[in-house]
Amino acid sequence: MYGADELPGVLSRAKAAGVSTILAIGIGEGPAEMHHALEIAESTSSPDLPIIFASAGIHPQEAARVDEEALARLSELAARPRCIAVGEIGLDYYHVENPEPEIQKRAFVAQMEIAARVRKPILIHCRTSELATPAAKQKFGTADAFEDVLALVGEHWAPLGVGGIMHCFSGTMEQARRSLELGFYISMAGNVTYPAASGIREAAKTVPADRILVETDAPFLAPIPYRGQRNESALMVHTAQFLAELRGMTAEELAARTTENFRRLFPSMTATDN
């Protein structure tokens, strides 16, 4: 993660790389810290730095800590203008120490209900146990996080027509198609540049131009040639360049398209973009 003294440099490098707007994900290390990204967004204003917006949410790994107090706090944060999304929320069956699926599902639904009240998009985190350790596979069994996410979204969220983002998409072409049908945008992170990520790349090529986004997932998943280093917003241009070549377009065309998509998904951003 970044220390407070590192943030100015991170933001300056992002601006220099051509990143003019950032959505900072507000999950922290749990419910007690999900306000930090919003505080940064609300306190950062300079023509020399990117414009920052934030989300707020409780990651599925922290689902056991979702109680009335945490949900009330999330409701307050989600209503603030600079908070334009709720997330990351979703399901994660990858780590053996993660809460049981039913606990994660209850937390996911509760947060979708909050997002519905403020009518702001949701950012979906979804990671299954397919590639997890043997202990995690034994714990979660045949449960499929993506299937469970799609079922819950179809029941509790899609009918509202607000939409959202499949964050750091790492699924299949079929999963991308089903996500699109539910009104979601597909966001590609640095792992699309990795040699072994052929499945992600195939999905990335098929996503309609008006539904694709690019992200960092910082501090994780730095793109090649920075793989293994700490990721940051300035490095997103490498992911974007790779994705543009993959889709047969220029980086400038991709940047224009993803910017348009971002603004369409987050109409509340316009009122606070000053």
Describe this protein with a few key phrases.
alpha/beta; 274 residues; 11 helices; 42% helix; TIM Barrel; 7-stranded parallel sheet; 7 strands
Describe the structure.
- It is a single chain.
- This protein is α/β, with parallel strands linked by helices.
- It has a single domain, classed as Alpha-Beta Barrel (TIM Barrel).
- The protein has 11 helices and 7 strands.
- It has helices spanning 7-16, 36-43, 68-78, 101-118, 134-140, 145-156, 173-181, 198-206, 236-246, 251-265, 268-272, and strands at 21-24, 51-56, 83-92, 122-127, 164-166, 184-188, 212-214.
- The protein has a 7-stranded parallel beta sheet with strand order 1-2-3-4-5-6-7, with helices on both faces.
- Helix 4 (101-118) packs parallel to helix 6 and helix 9 (236-246) crosses helix 10.
- The radius of gyration is 18 Å and the shape is globular.
- The mean pLDDT is 95.
Instruction: Choose one word for the global shape.
Output: globular
Structural class: alpha/beta
Spatially, the strands of the biggest sheet line up as: 1-2-3-4-5-6-7
CATH architecture: Alpha-Beta Barrel
Determine the CATH superfamily.
Answer: Metal-dependent hydrolases
Average pLDDT metric: 95
| Rg over C-alpha atoms, rounded to the nearest angstrom | 18 Å
Overall number of domains: 1
Biggest sheet architecture: 7 strands, parallel
SSE layout:
Layout lengths: L6 H10 L4 E4 L11 H8 L7 E6 L11 H11 L4 E10 L8 H18 L3 E6 L6 H7 L4 H12 L7 E3 L6 H9 L2 E5 L9 H9 L5 E3 L21 H11 L4 H15 L2 H5 L2
Parallel strand pairs: 1-2, 2-3, 3-4, 4-5, 5-6, 6-7
Helix pairs in contact: 3-4, 4-6, 9-10
